[in-house]
Amino acid sequence: MRKIKICLDAGHSGSKYNQSPVVKSYYESAMAWALHLKLEKKLEARGFEVFTTRPTIDAEVDVYARGKLAKGCDLFLSLHSNACGTESVDYPVVYRAYDNQNSANELALGFARMIGQRMGTKQAGRSATRKNSTGGEYYGVMRGARAAGVPLYLLVEHSFHTNTAAAKWLLEDRNLELLAEAEADTLAAYFKQTAAPVPEEERTTIMDAAQTTAQQMALYCRRRNAAPKLTSCSVEELAGMFLEEGAAEGVRGDIAWAQSLHETGFFKFGGIVQPGQNNFAGIGALNGNGKGQAASFPDPRTGVRAQIQHLKAYASTEPLAKACVDPRFSLVARGSAPYVEWLGAADNPGRTGWAVPGKGYGACVLDILAEVMAQEVPEPPAEEKDKPKYPAYQTEGLERLTEAGIIDSPEVWKARFGDTVTVGQMFGILGKLLARAESPAD
Ligand SMILES: [Zn+2]
Question: Same domain, yes or no, for 227 and 366?
């Protein structure tokens, strides 16, 4: 797929240009520079090709020339904060082409409203146009971008730095981080609607070995949501189950994980499915259903297994390795979506898929998958590295219990070898042993 090209312009040169009169440590030029670097990274992570107009914070390039640098780009974005004489004025405004070329207002207004919501401005975000005395664009950067033939160009005012709350908000690095994330998401959603189909050699096959570790999967999830709403296991244990159940059926467990993060909002839930249902990808949750009107599973592992099986139904025509626990398995046209890109029915040549209509569904899952794969795992502290070796009778015991099927998640237990066992866990293991002793079927 051709990459969408975006040119980012940090409003003004220097680190101390346009000081806020109400929050003295705030400078528009410093904010715009920091924000455009963050946005560059976030956009690149979402598959955009990104250009910037100035090499350093102090480099001076004429406004018109900066707009012209966007030649060949799909979008030019100039980042600013506004100023006026009235302290109480507090709203983002996005300037777009005066003649609304390429329906620029759709993106401009959506962008402005999103920023207003993120910043919590007093007045809602709005879009605007501004002409000069000869009827052309008033702003030099926009005039330059228009002259270069850039189809979409916007000048974004992140509210007014003459307002105390807005200037204080923009001073926080963490807020700029969240803002860049939200702006990148908005642009990704906007451009996906017009994205060309992905050619076969670039598609992501669902039936394959996972390419991430459980640790990466869990760390990334916690980065996006520090308090996942899981009712009966940890996010680390759940990640392990995705890899195990995926491997058992030949499905990429990391793809299923990315799908679950997308479906549950990083396990915040809040949609049709409730956290206690152990349904991590909305199986049986149809548009228009009320809260809880979706499949429920007795425990996390069964929910994960059902999701893996449901993915296998779409991705392959092979039989299941384990007994079917997916209540909707038989409803799927087997093998109709071997690629993640085809999971949304609107993106699938057969017009079927996991999500209906699901335009861009697969791309959303892949965006998350790419970030999980890029998740760095911190080096364990020194004492962790040479942690105690456990005696053979203990490690061999775990191996035997795993082989016998008494222990389902050896990785989870291995990681907790030195931990205390609860009474419940002990009875669970002993109960399984007893059941096996009483009926040694296999
Ligand atoms: Zn400015």
Answer: yes
Ligand 1 centroid from CA 161, angstroms = 10
What single letter denotes the amino acid at residue 405?
A: G
Q: How far is the CA of 42 from the centre of ligand 1 (A)?
A: 22
Q: Which of 349, 373, 397 is the last residue of a domain?
A: 373
pLDDT in tens, 283-308: 988 877 888 889 999 999 999 999 99
How far is the centre of ligand 1, averaged over its atoms, from the C-alpha of 53 (Å)? Answer: 15
11 C-alpha to ligand 1 centroid (Å): 5
With pLDDT > 70 as the criterion, what percentage of the chain qualifies? 96
pLDDT-based confidence at residue 61 (cuts at 50, 70, 90): very high
Whole-number Å distance, alpha carbon 189 to ligand 1 midpoint, is 26
Q: Is residue 378 part of a domain?
A: no
How does DSSP classify residue 415? H
Does this model's pTM top 0.70? no
Give the CATH number, domain containing residue 63: 3.40.630.40
CA 294–ligand 1 middle distance (angstroms)? 50
**Ligand 1 center to 55 CA (angstroms):** 18
191: CA distance to ligand 1 center in Å? Answer: 26
25 C-alpha vs ligand 1 centroid, how far in Å?
Answer: 17
CB of 116 closer than 8 Å to CB of 127: no
Q: Would you tell me how many other CB atoms lie within 10 Å of the CB of residue 429?
A: 15
Q: How far away, in angstroms, is 103 Cα from ligand 1 center?
A: 24
Give residue 431's Cα distance to chain centre. Answer: 41
Contact 138, 106 (CB under 8 A): no
Does the structure show a pLDDT above 70 at 388? no
Rounded CA separation 392/405 (Å)? 20
Is residue 24 helix, strand or coil? coil
50 to 72, 140, 148, 198, 386: CA distances (angstroms): 12, 21, 17, 20, 43
How do residues 63-94 score in pLDDT, each as one tens digit? Answer: 999 999 999 999 999 999 999 999 999 999 99
Together in a domain, 64 and 107: yes
Domain membership of residue 336 (yes or no) is yes
- Report CA(81)–ligand 1 centroid distance (Å): 6
Q: How far is the CA of 139 from the centre of ligand 1 (A)?
A: 10
Which range of residues forms the domain containing residue 412? 387-432
Q: Is 163 helix (H, G, I), strand (E, B) or coil?
A: coil
Q: What is the length of the chain?
A: 442
